[in-house]
Amino acid sequence: xxxxxxxxxxxxxxxxxxxxxxxxxxxxxxxxxxxxxxxxxxxxxxxxxxxxxxxxxxxxxxxxxxxxxxxxxxxxxxxxxxxxxxxxxxxxxxxxxxxxxxxxxxxxxxxxxxxxxxxxxxxxxxxxxxxxxxxxxxxxxxxxxxxxxxxxxxxxxxxxxxxxxxxxxxxxxxxxxxxxxxxxxxxxxxxxxxxxxxxxxxxxxxxxxx
Length: 210
Fold this sequence. Notes:
By secondary structure, this protein is an alpha/beta fold. The chain has helices at about 65-80, 100-110, 160, 180-195, 205, and strands at about 5-10, 20-30, 60-65, 85-90, 110-115, 130, 145-150, 165-175, 200. The chain is globular.
């Protein structure tokens, strides 16, 4: 199997439990909740995505022939030091492409593997850190993991249902759109009213990181 990757780069994780941690981001092309094209946004299940995952033309991106080739690219981006190697598989929807070969190859090169997924597909059992960000109107099948990240507010989202899912950490994150100040206040109020949840901010945007 080959892999279509929009971009691959070294950065600091900008949000969630691992915020501030050095990481290689592997952004896979394609998603099952939106084509990524503006003409289709109004009809998409997820209408608020702020990420470009269309094509394979981003920095470090391309079509990788097999898991070993992609894992080698991630290792090259990290550098020769194998200490605490950390790869974040994201998208789009990464579970459309992740398979045994890639997971094994990343582990062989010393990576701890995290995923950021919409949860509509079962996550590969070899993933070390599972972050699910559910989208209202989708059917979430991955209802357990390490980190549940709820973008807020979302019309049609059911936080009470989310609280019944089995996650070690629950985070609420303001929706980044033109009403951000309102959304930030709503997310703060959410966390204040629901002590099982913590506020998460997109620190990479505040710091000017990718």
